[in-house]
Write a structure and sequence with these properties.
With about 220 residues, this protein is an all-alpha fold. The protein has 2 domains: about 1-105, no CATH class; about 120-224, Leucine-rich Repeat Variant (Alpha Horseshoe). The chain has 15 helices and no strands. It starts with 6 loop residues before the first helix and ends with a helix.
């Protein structure tokens, strides 16, 4: 992985992932490996590496090493879903940037809960967490449900998160609502008509991105 690093890319990534003082990614270390290259490393070694080794990578200060560890977990999930999900939750504090959440939560926690309609309570606990990344896991995990036309938890958790103060949560909620709308426009619009006047503007903009220009304008102006 160190051989794949690029100092110029690393500089760009540090800015993109907001690693400065007081920013959400403060102190995160990048060595400049692209996501496609990280995927290739994960795919090559996932079957050989143990969970203990994955944990070592996951506790690295280097962002891309944590990413590769998590992409390996996505690979391992196919063979050992319960064990992998348990490991993921036990180490959730290391899933600590938005890309790490988005590339893994639907494929691990979401996939695991997909057929467990009777107990998705962990998503609601995460939605109430004080930790930004845990709240993002709660909503982004539901992408796995959305893909199967199962929208109830996405809509409930979106409603819980409407008052969240962080822009990254506004984006995540809007994104998931937009994904619901791709499959069931009526379900998304039913939610929006009930909540759009009090939604954060960023969440609303993301949610209505695929609407016609006239309809977008009406929502943004509060005239629906």
């Amino acid at each position: 992985m160190r051989a794949l690093g690029d100092l110029e890319k690393a500089k760009v990534m540090r800015r993109f992932f907001k690693t400065g003082p007081g920013q959400y990614g403060q102190g995160d270390v990048f060595i400049g490996i692209t996501v496609p290259a990280s995927r290739q490393v994960a795919k090559k070694y996932a079957s050989e590496i143990t969970l203990a080794d994955v944990k070592t990578l996951l506790h690295s200060q280097i962002h891309e090493e944590r990413l590769v560890a998590l992409l390996m977990l996505v690979q391992k999930y196919q063979g050992e879903p319960e064990k992998t999900t348990k490991f993921y939750l036990e180490n959730l504090d290391r899933v600590n940037n938005w890309d790490l959440v988005d590339l893994t939560a639907p494929s691990i926690l979401g996939a695991f809960l997909l057929d467990r309609r009777e107990d998705r309570s962990i998503l609601y606990r995460l939605a109430r967490s004080q930790v930004l990344w845990e709240r993002r896991v709660s909503i982004v995990s539901t992408y796995a449900f959305i893909r199967k036309n199962d929208f109830a938890d996405t809509l409930k958790i979106s409603e819980m998160l409407l008052s969240d103060s962080h822009d990254l949560m506004h984006k995540a909620v809007g994104w998931m609502l937009r994904e619901v709308g791709k499959r069931d426009p009526a379900a998304e619009e039913g939610f929006l008509k009930q909540h759009y006047k009090k939604m954060p503007r960023t969440a609303l903009r993301y949610a209505i991105e695929r609407f016609s220009e006239d309809k977008r304008r009406a929502y943004m102006q509060g005239a629906v």
